[in-house]
Design goal:
By secondary structure, the protein is mainly α. Helix content is 76%, strand content 1%.
């Protein structure tokens, strides 16, 4: 990609790219605060509440790798612009929803558009950044977006209380307009490095397998006459997923080049990001629900109550970027995961004790850990890809992250329902013990991530990764 041939304009380009990630983060935290009110107004069941969250995540997880490939084929700037405009229209659709089904459909549309715009924007940032400044560039890209993550709960709470929940989605409109205007004003020009065709059967198998698995795991039918349907659906989903993986390893032009995972560092970074996403998405959604329905917080109070998680991320993400540029990924990632492991333990204890001060202390540790670990893992993964395949690798990494989001929500819902006993709180159908058990799952995920980092995260990516040979089986280094 060229930016009028002027390297000094790379920072305005990076600022322009923050719009896509900003809206994704904004919507994730806004929905956590607004969901109880949206659910009440649209008469959502507990299952529909889960789909209101997972509809977006599932669509993005199923298609983000496809989005990365499309961006490489049509041009990353063009993919970014199309995705942003579509996201704006889908956000207006969410705001206009009058039924639960309409709302979930609009959330799915948001996810599809996010799958196109997000890997394109991440690849553009790595493209324009000087190799020795990629850590700082990605920290800036993530850091500005994290401002929206932090502001989301407070803004969402105020909008729900002072106006109405549709405004939580309409605030995406000015963000889109500003980002699109910046790309036009900077006269960004895309190159088209790759035109490998998309494999039709793979495009169908991936989202279908994920949809079937997610549906099966979210059904609370383990002890009912319909249990056979749940497990049959899960088996079909697993079978399709296996066929998909097998096909990617056999065909010459796979939808997702799983051979890239032969690179140990890329594989480890992707798995770490997936695990961290499992933790953060569950905490972001169900933490707000817990504060409102168990602790009796108002939407605004729940928004403010989420800040101990979000503020440390903003404060430390730039520190992590400088640490990566200076010494590589191991120090910030391992340090961050240690804090995350401690934070998830303290959070779980605070929920069981119904103590916000303890919960807030755990959120602070978790936020600090995420601020240190997430950006270095992301930039290290993308830095290992040849320029002409960076969009594909960005899509692959985001695929893993969104799988973490999708199954993070699915697994925490499953654990909370299986552990449910005692008095049901609020309208969520959950119990205190169930929520504490769901958050306890995060402790195990954090421990696994820390083990992987200690075992496999070592040296920094080379400043100039070797050019791809064009063969899909060539792993990056």
């Amino acid at each position: 990609m060229a930016v009028n041939g002027r390297s000094q304009r790379r920072w305005p380009v990076i600022l322009a790219m923050t719009g896509s990630l900003s809206m994704i983060m904004l919507d994730s935290t806004v929905l956590g605060v607004a969901l109880p009110t949206v659910s009440s107004d649209l008469s959502m069941s507990g299952g529909m509440q889960a789909w209101a969250v997972n509809g977006f995540l599932l669509a993005m997880a199923s298609c983000v790798a496809i989005g990365g490939r499309v961006g490489d084929a049509i041009g990353r700037v063009r993919a970014f612009q199309i995705g942003m405009f579509g996201f704006m229209l889908a956000s207006i659709g969410c705001a206009a929803a009058t039924t639960a089904e309409w709302f979930v459909a609009a959330r799915v549309a948001q996810g599809l558009c996010a799958a196109l715009m997000q890997p394109a924007s991440a690849a553009i940032v790595i493209d324009v950044a000087a190799p020795e400044r990629r850590g700082v560039a990605m920290a800036t890209y993530a850091g500005i977006s994290l401002l929206f993550l932090a502001a989301g709960p407070v803004i969402g709470g105020m909008l729900v209380e002072q106006a109405s929940w549709p405004w939580c989605f309409l605030i995406n409109v000015p963000v889109v307009i500003a980002s699109l205007a910046a790309t036009i004003g900077l006269q960004l020009v895309s190159t088209v490095p790759s035109r490998r065709p998309l494999d039709g059967p793979s495009v169908l198998m991936l989202p279908t397998s994920m949809l079937l698995l997610t549906w099966a795991l979210q059904q609370d039918t383990a002890h009912s006459a319909d249990a056979w349907l749940r497990w049959t659906t899960a088996a079909i989903g697993i079978g399709l997923a296996w066929l998909f993986i097998r096909r990617q390893l056999m065909i010459a032009t796979p939808l997702i080049d799983l051979r890239l995972f032969r690179n140990q560092s890329l594989r480890t970074n992707a798995l770490l990001l997936m695990g961290l996403q499992v933790i953060t998405v569950g905490q972001g959604i169900f933490g707000s629900i817990y504060m409102q329905e168990c602790l009796g917080f108002t939407p605004v109070q729940a928004g403010v109550g989420s800040l101990p998680l979000l503020v440390p991320v903003i404060l430390l993400v730039h520190v992590a970027g400088r640490m990566y540029d200076k010494s590589g990924p191991r120090t910030p990632i391992v340090s961050g995961l240690l804090l995350i492991l401690m934070g998830t333990g303290v959070e779980t204890f605070g929920i069981a004790a119904e103590s916000y001060p303890v919960l807030g202390a755990g959120m602070t540790l978790l936020g600090a850990g995420c601020g240190l670990a997430m950006s270095p893992a992301n930039v290290d993964a993308l830095s290992r890809a040849p320029t002409e395949r960076r969009g594909e690798v960005a899509g692959l990494v985001q695929q893993m992250r969104q799988l973490g989001s999708t199954f993070g929500i699915t697994l925490i819902v499953l654990v909370m329902h299986l552990s449910a006993s005692g008095e049901v709180i609020g309208t969520s159908g959950l119990t205190l013990r169930g929520i504490a058990s769901g958050f306890g799952l995060h402790i195990a995920i954090a421990a696994i991530c820390l083990f992987l980092a200690l075992r496999f995260v070592h040296e920094k990516a080379p400043l100039k990764p070797p050019a791809s040979t064009g063969h899909p089986s060539t792993p990056t280094t």
